[in-house]
Amino acid sequence: MNNKKILMLLLAVLSFSGCAKIKEIREDIQEKIKPGSTAKKQSAPQKAVFAVNTTSVVKGQIQDYIALSGDIVAGSTVDVYSDAAGKVAQVYTAVGQRVNKGARIAAVDPSRPGMIYQWGIALAPISGTVVALPAQVGMTISQAVPLARISGGSALEIRLYVAERFISKMAMNLPCEITLDAWPGDIFQGSISEVAPTVDPASRTMEVRINVDNAGSKLKAGMFAKVKIITERKDNIVKIPATAMLNRFGEQYVFVIASDYENPQQKVVRKRAVTPGILIDGILEIQNGLAADEEIVVRGQTLLEDGAWVNIIEKFAPLSAN
C-alpha cells in the first residue's frame, strides 16, 4: 500500500469519528432541553431567602418625659438663730437628733473683754429633726448666722432647676418617677408641688419642687435623685421598636410577616406604610398602618422587598404594655 492510500484511509477514519462525536454531542444537548428534564430543573435559578428577626406589635402606653436631677431636701425647715452675737460656748444637740419645741440648741457667750454677760440660750422654734448644725464651740457668730436647721416633719421634696427651653412643659401636679443610686432598681413616685414664678437671669433656669412619696423611709435629706417629669402620656396606642421602621425616599414603612400564596409553608414579608407618632427611648408610636399582635421584622430588613422570602431566625419578646 502506497503512502497516498494510507493517507486517504486515515482521513476517512477521522471523518467517521468526528461525525459520531458531533452526533453524540447533539443528542446530549437535545436531552437536556427536553421539557421536564432533570438538567433543566437544576439550571433554574432559586429564589433568595433572607434571615430576619421579628417581634410582635404591642398595644399599650407610651409617655414623654424630661430627665433632670436634684437634691432631696426636707419639706419644711426652720433655721435657729441666737438673740445676741458672741462666741458659741456649748452645743446641746447633734445632727439627726429629734428635738421638741423650746429645747436648747446652743449657748452663746456675748461677753467682751472687761465685761462678763450671761450666756444666751438659742431654743428650737419648732419640734423636728436637726438636719444641719453649723454651730461649733468657739466660733464667733452674729444674729444673722444660723446655729442649726430643723426639719419640722417627715415630708421630703426634691429641688430641681429646669432649663428655659422646657419651662412651657412645666405644670403643677405633673407625675414624676424618681430613682436613686442608693436604692438601685427602686422607683419612687412624686409630683410637681411648686413652680417658681421667675427665671434666674444668670443660669436661665427655673426652680421646681417635687413632692416625693417616701415609702419605707428609704429617702434621706441630702441624697441625690434622678427625676423623670412625665410631660405627656398616651394610653391604648400601638407601639413598636423604632428600629423596625424604614424611611426611604420620604416613605415610612415596616415589613409584616405573612405566608406565601403558592407555598403556605414559606414565610414572606409584606411592605406596610405606617404613620409614626412620638419616639421615646427607642419606642415608636404608630398612629396608622399596624394592629396589635401583628408580627414585624426588627432586624435584617435592609435588603428586603415586598414579597421576599424570609427565614425567621429568632422572635424577640414584645415590648412591655406599660
Task: Note down, in words, how this protein is organized.
This protein folds into three domains: 49-62 and 235-315, conserved putative lor/sdh protein from methanococcus maripaludis s2 fold (Beta Barrel); 65-73 and 154-234, Elongation Factor Tu (Ef-tu), domain 3 (Beta Barrel); 80-151, OB fold (Dihydrolipoamide Acetyltransferase, E2P) (Beta Barrel), CATH 2.40.50. Helices cover 11% and strands 46% of the residues. It is built from two helices and 22 strands. A six-stranded mixed beta sheet has the order 16-17-18-22-1-21, with no helix packed on it. The chain has a six-stranded antiparallel barrel with strand order 2-11-14-13-12-15. The chain is rod-shaped and about 150 Å long. The mean pLDDT is 85.
Summarize the structure.
The chain is mainly beta and 322 residues long. The chain has helices spanning 3-32, 38-43; strands at 49-56, 58-74, 77-80, 86-91, 98-99, 104-109, 120-123, 128-132, 140-141, 148-151, 156-163, 175-179, 188-195, 205-212, 224-241, 246-248, 251-259, 267-273, 275-280, 283-288, 295-299, 309-315. The protein has three domains: 49-62 and 235-315, Beta Barrel (conserved putative lor/sdh protein from methanococcus maripaludis s2 fold), CATH 2.40.420.20; 65-73 and 154-234, Efflux pump adaptor protein, beta barrel domain (Elongation Factor Tu (Ef-tu), domain 3), CATH 2.40.30.170; 80-151, OB fold (Dihydrolipoamide Acetyltransferase, E2P) (Beta Barrel).
